[in-house]
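Ticket #261: bound-state structure for 2'-O-acetyl adenosine-5-diphosphoribose.
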Amino acid sequence: MRAGGSDPIREAARLLAERRNAVALTGAGISVESGIPSFRGAQGMWAKYDPMEYATLHAFMQHPRKVWEMLSEMVSVCGGAAPNAAHKGLAALEKLGVVRAVITQNVDGLHQAAGSRRVIEYHGNLDELICVYCWKRYLMRERWTPGAVPLCDCGEILKPNVVLFGESIPWLAQEQAEEEARTCGVLLVIGTSAQVSPACDIPGIAKDAGAAVVEINPEPTSLTASATDIHLRGSASDVIRHLLKELSPGDEASPSAPSGH
Ligand code: OAD
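RESOLUTION: The complex was predicted; output attached.
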């Protein structure tokens, strides 16, 4: 923790309450408690699938069936996942007027499922498939079945509308994310190792524009010693539950209150 207050949760809650225009930047860590593996680390996707072989546009163009081995796993794991207390807590903070937008690197749709309304999907989402040859689009749920690669009417193998390495960030998402970062009072950085560009530049943009950076992560990251003002060390669900308690004391109906759901 690198802040003046003695209790970092209280200090972060005070900042959030005072400024009331926080933006969250989320990564795979927020969905770990929903059963979706993160990317880095011993249990991460990249320990099982080399990203250079499975997660680049070039790899998809060369060997789409091989890349679909990884994609199929992602689609079925994400399709069976439900939002956890951290996703629900962020949605509750939006309803309280504390958080005004979520920028997510995740493609699982769990922020929207939890009730967040202003979600910027920086790396796309798994709801849609696109043909990289004829550009026709389809809904994933209408075209994909487990064990098969989804085909376009033109006969080519479809690609999920997610950003693979070597692809650009969707321009509108990038514009919106940078605008949110430039104008927020607090940036909550939750469950990201901040190793992938350009998403990892967002905290610096916010910081340079005067925002406080509050990081929620059980581990330190490359941001912790550089951009982070307050590091709340713990799982996203625990920390957000505590923040909500500070910001709405006595609100037993809060979606993030421990309720067994
Ligand atoms: P990473 O897997 O790199 O990092 C996950 C972070 O979440 C780590 O810093 C963990 O310490 C933290 N973490 C783990 N469990 C947590 C919990 N319960 N609560 C809070 N934090 C927790 O995932 P990202 O940073 O999201 O992009 O990865 C960024 C991008 O790299 C992804 O969007 C994906 C990947 O390659 C593309 O594929 C283009």
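RESOLUTION NOTES: Residues 1-5, 252-261 have pLDDT under 50 and may be disordered.
TICKET STATUS: resolved
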